[in-house]
Amino acid sequence: MNKPALLLQIIARLESAHASALQAAKTAHSAATHEENIPDNKYATLGLEASYLAQGQANRAQDILVSLKAFRQMVVQKFSDATPIRLTALVQLEDEGGASRLVFLGPAAGGLCLTFEEREVMVITPASPLGRELLGKRCGDSLQIRTDGLREYEIVSVC
Predict the structure, then answer these.
(1) 138 or 1, greater pLDDT
(2) Backbone φ, ψ for residue 86 (5° rounding)
(3) Nearest CA to 61 among 23, 107, 11?
(4) pTM for the whole structure
């Protein structure tokens, strides 16, 4: 797989999410400060609620911006089957039922899913349970993750 192209796609998705969060914050701010939302009694809280929403969206935009910066500064590493897994590894896992999944070990934006080269790729971070288990492992190793039950995976490939 072309990991530099994958990195560019992740950055593009984060830029889009950042723009959406900024727009949502601006919209909520406009609603919070609109003259029709000035409270005329103690039960009229629409302006206050909109201000909380605006702050939440602004915080979300800031978090995405931090993730964007981390991905823009990242240098994609090459891995072989013998190389220990660390940041920028693209790992193919297979569960006990034979189902395969691709995960990209990134510095931030855990949970981001995208389609790349007709495959679904999920970004995970070293802070996630799966990310913690993958660090230092190699192709052919097995690992167990406890989520809603115990799941076992085999590392099929690393690039």
Answers:
(1) 138
(2) -150, -170
(3) 23
(4) 0.87
